């Protein structure tokens, strides 16, 4: 696979109205292939939050039967995708609003598989009440906390309350009180492995510390998740699936015998947050272009728009990064702005007013909230213009 040049993308997108977002399908398809190899024959559930484009979700599922099912970020998204023909849908975060649970239950009544995430008794109570009112048993997934806690450091994310085996046992004892919930799956998302780069530039000591903590955390996760699976299956029988992982932790997660599938999302687009991992490197398949509209100084070009900043803790790593032409960087006093983004340019490609500057987003699917369509590029030509969730009129969070 060849590294892209500025002239390659400039020629390929000639005449396109700017700003625009794009996906390079040659890179995207190679990422799909490489992710399959990393997963070592285990099922891969697609994290829809990181894709947010129905056409591309279909493309992944059609690529290989190892890609099965979607991990959605809200119940309303899962219901909408079910109505688009998708099935085997795991809602990754708890659903509490009654009308959202009702909508899920109505899809289940049609024969669809949708699993709601739970870790609290309050979740069980609410889901059970809706199930009882509609006379439908609703499949649920137990969310196991797999963070690690060290003196003065919580290594992971604050996600589930089920952080001990005692908590899991207490949760399982409650199940008999709620006949309209059906525990069918278990999930444990190791964010501290899957979403934390361990080969960041100019951070040698920090990289070593992160790598050490990750290796130690992986050992703890394997023990905790393995014991939790035993407890759950002893209580309810064989599960439909045990889900774990993410783009950054595929190898560690699939090595666990009890895990039946790994979740992957960001790896298909590969945003900048996934550039710096020691054990893998995927291709930068997604980006966006903004237009040069000013040149206030010889080495400064000002673009219209471009300030698409990612969520999470504030930091330079959440800013979009100029990608092409080489030699571009954000101007330190302004960075990426909603209406204008100046860049400092020291490259050799000649730039003029009206030219595109190509950027990459920090995260994967969040870019789709800014654009109605994605230009799909194949072999150096735009072959399709596909709606994002936003372009389909949907905004789920």
From TrEMBL:
GO biological process: D-serine catabolic process
Top-level taxon of the source organism: Bacteria
Alphabetized GO MF terms: D-serine ammonia-lyase activity; L-gulonolactone oxidase activity
Xref: InterPro entries: Ala_racemase_N, D-amino_acid_metab_enzyme, PLP-binding_barrel
Keywords for the protein's UniProt record, in alphabetical order: Oxidoreductase
EC number in record: 1.1.3.8
Boundaries of every Alanine racemase N-terminal domain copy: 23-206
PANTHER family referenced in this protein's UniProt entry, alphabetically: D-SERINE DEHYDRATASE, ZGC:162816-RELATED
Protein name, as recorded: L-gulono-1,4-lactone oxidase (EC)
Organism: uncultured Aureispira sp
């Amino acid at each position: 696979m060849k590294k892209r040049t500025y002239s390659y993308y400039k020629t390929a997108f000639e005449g396109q109205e700017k700003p625009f977002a794009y996906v390079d399908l040659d890179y995207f398809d190679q990422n799909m292939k490489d992710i399959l190899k990393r997963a070592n024959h285990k099922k891969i559930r697609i994290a829809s939050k990181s894709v947010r484009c129905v056409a591309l979700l279909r493309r992944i599922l059609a690529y290989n039967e190892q890609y099965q099912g979607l991990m959605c970020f809200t119940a309303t998204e899962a219901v909408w995708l079910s109505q688009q023909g998708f099935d085997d849908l795991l809602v990754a975060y708890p659903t509490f609003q009654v009308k959202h649970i009702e909508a899920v239950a109505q899809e289940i009544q049609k024969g669809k598989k949708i699993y709601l995430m739970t870790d609290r008794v309050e979740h069980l109570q609410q889901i059970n009440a809706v199930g009882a009112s509609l006379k439908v048993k609703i499949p649920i997934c137990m969310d196991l906390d797999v963070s690690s806690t060290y003196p003065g450091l919580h290594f992971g994310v604050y996600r589930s309350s089920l952080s001990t085996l005692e908590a899991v046992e207490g949760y399982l004892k409650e199940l008999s009180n709620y006949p309209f919930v059906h525990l069918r799956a278990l999930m444990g998302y190791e964010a501290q492995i899957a979403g934390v780069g361990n080969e960041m530039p100019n951070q040698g000591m920090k990289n070593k510390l992160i790598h050490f903590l990750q290796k130690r955390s992986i050992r703890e996760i394997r023990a905790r998740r393995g014991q939790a699976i035993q407890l759950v299956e002893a209580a309810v029988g064989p599960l439909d699936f045990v889900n774990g992982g993410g783009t950054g932790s595929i190898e560690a997660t699939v090595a666990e015998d009890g895990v039946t599938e790994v979740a992957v999302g960001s790896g298909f687009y590969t945003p900048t947050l996934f550039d710096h991992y020691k054990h893998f490197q995927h291709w930068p398949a997604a980006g966006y272009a903004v237009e040069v509209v000013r040149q206030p100084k010889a080495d400064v070009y000002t673009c219209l728009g471009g300030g698409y900043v990612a969520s999470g803790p504030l930091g330079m790593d959440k800013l979009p990064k100029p990608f092409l032409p080489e030699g571009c960087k954000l101007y330190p006093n302004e960075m990426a702005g909603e209406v204008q983004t100046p860049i400092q340019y020291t490259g050799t490609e000649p730039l003029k007013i009206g030219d595109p500057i190509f950027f990459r987003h920090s995260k994967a699917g969040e870019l789709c909230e800014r654009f109605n369509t994605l230009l799909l590029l194949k072999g150096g030509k735009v072959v399709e213009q596909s709606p994002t969730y936003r372009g389909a009129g949907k905004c789920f969070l």
